[in-house]
Write a structure and sequence with these properties.
78% helix; 149 residues; 0% strand; mainly alpha
Length: 149
């Protein structure tokens, strides 16, 4: 159960959330274009990159939940720590940058607040995943010790 919680938390925070963010910003931009409104949203490279990596994380989480190959737990932890570092950088960047009132507006302000609210999860989830995936039951799961041969 603990391993499932760890993998689901990783999938939601690092897989679904970036994909939802890209979808949300893309829909707002498309709506502004359809209504001929000036000042639509510009989706930056970080957001597109996070969306693509979110899809990769979902595949890694699926393989980690399946338990094969056995080294997938190391891949999951490595990718998780890398993405945590990048996300913490984005949170610090959001705190230190000012809102552009013409081109950013309310959507940029909302996304900054979402990034700020993610900070506790960005600390708790990686700590839990790294701690639990290195416990004996999780190691036995990845060694396939629980399955008959």
């Amino acid at each position: 159960m603990g391993l499932t919680i760890a993998i689901l938390a990783t999938a939601v925070l690092y897989g679904f959330m970036p994909l939802v963010e890209v979808y949300f910003l893309r829909r707002i931009d498309a709506t502004a274009d359809d209504a001929y409104l000036l000042g639509g949203i510009e989706i930056d490279t970080w957001t597109w990159l996070e969306g693509m990596v979110g899809g990769i994380i979902l595949v890694v989480c699926l393989l980690a939940w399946w338990g094969r190959p056995a080294q997938i737990r190391f891949v999951l932890v490595g990718v998780l720590l890398l993405l945590t570092g990048i996300s913490l950088y984005r949170i610090v960047e959001a705190w230190t940058s000012s809102v552009d009132p013409i081109f950013g507006g309310q959507a940029q302000s909302v996304m900054r607040n979402v990034l700020r609210c993610q900070l506790p999860m960005m600390i708790v989830v990686p700590l839990y995943v790294v701690w639990y995936i290195n416990r004996a039951p999780a190691r036995a799961f990845y060694r396939q010790a629980h399955r008959p041969r």
